[in-house]
């Protein structure tokens, strides 16, 4: 029976991380396991910034965005010397297992750490990008989509008032999940994502079809990692190839998508994953990510989560094209 575990958040923050931390702490206490918090991810593990957590430690945090444990990306943990320091700090506290809330980089570090020192880790998928294989949704994704959608709705009002074409950039360097769902929900005429090439010629043709139907304003949602470039670059390409006078504006939503009060869905998802992570460690799971697929808790090896792609549903892409006509 595992006696002591620690929880930390690493990489980009995501709304719902606090709900997950809360679930990890309270599930541990329910089963009589001592639980510790590690501040600032792997950097805090190396520095020994570790403290015992209680039920009171996680009171009144389920509704808060960000992470009370702070987060960071650690260059030092990428070195063997850094991992040695981290292991020595965990030994001081008698920690036998870890719950890592983060993404691929976090899980890659945990895999190497286990290979070298045998500390088991169960990961909880915490990223707004929803790009991790092994779960239908990641912590923070639903909130990020709703944040982007609220902005799109407001921008559409001003686009319609001034007969403008707006290019709205959302987060997603390698994943178009935020773009596709916020774009469909926001009634975007075009959604551009990294997974599928949308040529500039196709964008222009779609806009022209709208103008021929006396459509005076349009919304194009662009994931930041699209192959044609970010929203500003796409807008410039459109301007240079269209021979009529159109009022084009660009809005980059940026880090507002990372913050904010988590939705009910994200709070419940994060709570289920936090509980599942602790029970996974108790049942001997190691080097796995806990996820939910078809509403069931699933444990996926880190090597698959890191290696395997999570493609966008083709029906979603088809829906954009059909509903923009």
Automatic annotation (TrEMBL):
Q: Does the keyword Nucleotide-binding apply?
A: yes
A Gene Ontology MF term for this entry?
ATP binding
Q: Where does substrate bind?
A: 127-129, 164, 171-173, 224, 249, 255-258
Has UniProt tagged this entry with the keyword Mitochondrion? no
Q: What is this protein called?
A: ATP-dependent 6-phosphofructokinase
Write the lineage as a comma-separated list: Bacteria, Pseudomonadati, Bacteroidota, Cytophagia, Cytophagales
List the catalytic residues: 129 (proton acceptor)
Q: How does it assemble?
A: Homotetramer.
| Main enzyme class | transferase
Record key words, sorted: Allosteric enzyme, ATP-binding, Cytoplasm, Glycolysis, Kinase, Magnesium, Metal-binding, Nucleotide-binding, Transferase
Cite the annotated pathway.
Carbohydrate degradation; glycolysis; D-glyceraldehyde 3-phosphate and glycerone phosphate from D-glucose: step 3/4
Tell me which domain of life the UniProt entry assigns to the organism this sequence originates from: Bacteria
Positions with a binding annotation for ADP = 22-26, 156, 187-189, 213, 215-217
* Co-factor requirement: Mg(2+)
Q: Name one GO biological process term.
A: fructose 6-phosphate metabolic process
Q: Which family does it belong to?
A: Belongs to the phosphofructokinase type A (PFKA) family. ATP-dependent PFK group I subfamily. Prokaryotic clade 'B1' sub-subfamily.
- Predominant place of localization: cytoplasm
The reaction(s) catalysed by this protein are: beta-D-fructose 6-phosphate + ATP = beta-D-fructose 1,6-bisphosphate + ADP + H(+)
């Amino acid at each position: 029976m595992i006696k002591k575990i620690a929880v930390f958040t690493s990489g980009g923050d995501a709304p719902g991380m606090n709900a997950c931390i809360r679930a990890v702490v309270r599930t541990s206490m329910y089963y009589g396991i001592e639980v510790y918090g590690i501040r600032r991810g792997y950097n805090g593990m190396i520095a020994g910034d570790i403290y015992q957590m209680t039920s009171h430690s996680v009171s009144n945090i389920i509704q808060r965005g960000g992470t009370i444990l702070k987060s960071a990306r650690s260059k030092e943990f990428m070195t063997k010397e850094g991992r040695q320091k981290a292991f020595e700090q965990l030994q001081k506290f008698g920690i036998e297992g870890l719950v890592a809330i983060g993404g691929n980089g976090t899980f890659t570090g945990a895999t190497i750490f286990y290979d070298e020192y045998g500390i088991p880790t169960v990961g909880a998928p915490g990223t707004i990008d929803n790009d991790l294989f092994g779960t239908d949704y990641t912590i923070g994704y639903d909130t990020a989509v709703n944040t982007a959608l609220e902005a799109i709705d407001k921008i559409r009002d001003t686009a319609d008032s001034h007969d403008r074409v707006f290019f709205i950039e959302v987060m997603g360097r390698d994943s178009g999940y935020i773009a596709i769902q916020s774009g469909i929900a926001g009634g975007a005429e075009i959604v551009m994502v990294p997974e599928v090439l949308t040529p500039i010629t196709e964008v222009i043709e779609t806009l022209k079809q709208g103008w021929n139907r006396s459509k005076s304003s349009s919304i194009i949602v662009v994931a930041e990692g699209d192959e044609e470039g970010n929203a500003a670059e796409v807008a410039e390409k459109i301007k240079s190839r269209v021979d009529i006078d159109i009022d084009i504006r660009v809005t980059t939503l940026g880090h507002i998508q990372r913050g904010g009060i988590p939705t009910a869905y994200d709070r419940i998802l994060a709570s289920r994953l936090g509980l599942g992570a602790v029970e996974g460690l108790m049942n001997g799971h190691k080097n796995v990510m806990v996820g939910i697929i078809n509403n069931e808790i699933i444990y996926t090896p880190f090597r698959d989560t890191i290696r395997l792609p999570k493609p966008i549903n083709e029906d979603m892409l088809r829906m954009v094209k059909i509903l923009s006509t």
